[in-house]
User: Fold this.
Amino acid sequence: MRAATLASTDHARRHQLEGAWVPIAASVAGSRVAVDELRVRYLLLEDGGRYLVNEQLTPATLDIVGRSGPHAGRTMRAIYELRDDELTVCYDLEGGERPANMQPQEDQLLLRITYTRAAILFS
Assistant:
């Protein structure tokens, strides 16, 4: 997936998450992955796409519907942490259960990507 374009039903949280995000760190099953090896080059969170946020849960959840690439039409049930201009998203690569936390699990193949807010907008 080169880019994900998403939208939210939670307006306050959408405002904080909206924008372009570029990956700065990643891991699969707890092992570091070079950012340039990721299929995701950026994450674009904006109106007109599809994502659902629930910050009432701990950890906060983010359901992403892929719009293109290998995840097109697939819902990825993720968790996330937002700290200032860093967004960390974690989901099960095998499409199983939503991760319980950001830590590697023996029974899940978790991808964790940390993004930073981009200074430029993608079109």
Q: What stands out?
A: Confidence is low (pLDDT under 50) at residues 1-10. The helical segments are 11-17. The longest helix spans residues 11-17.
